[in-house]
C-alpha cells in the first residue's frame, strides 16, 4: 500500500504512525545516525537540537519514546537555544535527509510517491502540519518533498 504509485493530482496525508504513510511521521521508529550518535527517531534528534551542546541534548537522545523526547523538548523549563527559530527548518531537513537516505526501504517509499503533495494532516500543528483545515504551513510535508527531489536528482 505505502509503496504504490499514486496519481499526481492526489495528496498523501499522514500523521499517526500506525496508519498509511505513518513512516513519514517523525515519531515513526526509524533510527538515524548523526553527529556520531544514534538517535532512536528523527523526533529525538529534532527535539534534542533545541538544547545543542548542553546536557539536555543527551537527555533527549536517551528518551524512551519519541513522545517523551517531544515532551522534554517542548518543556520551556529547559532553556531553548536562542537561534532556534532561525535554525529549526535546517535541523528538521538534516534529520529527514538522514532518515530517508539511511533506510533504503524508506527511500524507495518516498520516491514511489512521485510528485504527489505530502501533507502532515493534524489540527495539533499549524507550522509543521496543515492545522487540520489545510491552512497550516505544512513545513514537514514541504521539507519531505524537497528531500524527495534532492534524492531523485542523485539517482
Ligand atoms: N504527534 C504530534 N503531536 C503534536 O502535538 C505535534 N505538534 C506533532 N507534530 C510534530 O511535532 C514536531 C515538532 O514539534 P515542536 O516544534 O517541538 O512543537 C514535528 O515532528 C512535527 O511533525 N506531532
TrEMBL record:
The record's section on InterPro entries has: NADAR, YbiA-like_sf
Give every NADAR domain span: 14-152
Q: CDD domains recorded for this chain? A: NADAR (cd15457)
Give the catalysed reaction(s), semicolon-separated: 5-amino-6-(5-phospho-D-ribosylamino)uracil + H2O = 5,6-diaminouracil + D-ribose 5-phosphate; 2,5-diamino-6-hydroxy-4-(5-phosphoribosylamino)-pyrimidine + H2O = 2,5,6-triamino-4-hydroxypyrimidine + D-ribose 5-phosphate
Entry-linked SUPFAM superfamilies: YbiA-like
Can you name this protein?
NADAR domain-containing protein
* Protein's organism: Aphanothece sacrum FPU1
Q: What is the lineage of its organism?
A: Bacteria, Bacillati, Cyanobacteriota, Cyanophyceae, Oscillatoriophycideae
